[in-house]
Amino acid sequence: MSQYNEDKNFAAGDCNNIEFPGNSFEHCGFNNCDLSEYDLSSTTFIDCRFTDCNLSLVKLSDTNFRDVQFTGCKMLGLMFGDCNKYGVAFNFNNCVLNNASFFKTKIQKTAFNTCQLQEADFTSCDATSTIFDNCNFLNAKFENTVLEKADFRTAYNYVIDPTLNKIKKARFSLPGVTGLLQQFNIIIE
User: In this predicted model, what pLDDT tens digit does every residue of 67-92 receive, in sequence order?
Assistant: First the structure.
């Protein structure tokens, strides 16, 4: 039987007693929770906040994220492509998302602020109008990615092949534009 949770705040010790799969959380806060390797499959989160949580390697099969805010979270190896595709909406502040995969995920208008996205996979992702503010993309993968109107002006360490991705009207800073030219094997002095 599914359980509905509303307007609740969960702290570190509380999370050990929560049954997630198949349950719903609305207007809830999760603070300092270690949920690493938890199964969040078929769980619905609506207008929730995760602050300083460890969500590394959680299972996201058919998980619903609607208007969810992640702040200061460790989120290594998450497979966002496994989430329920309907209504996905989240934002990330000061999060570590290394080795995360957004494969075939629509993350339009998402804000990533001061995030580590090293070795993240954005293959076939739709990141239209997404803001990547002060984000580190070392060894991140962009292939067949829609980055139209995305903002990379303060992002760094990205390598994006304009011939393999849609970047119309995306915004880049002058020093960062070298990440668009790397595949041409040219020397910029």
Answer: 999 999 999 999 999 999 888 999 99
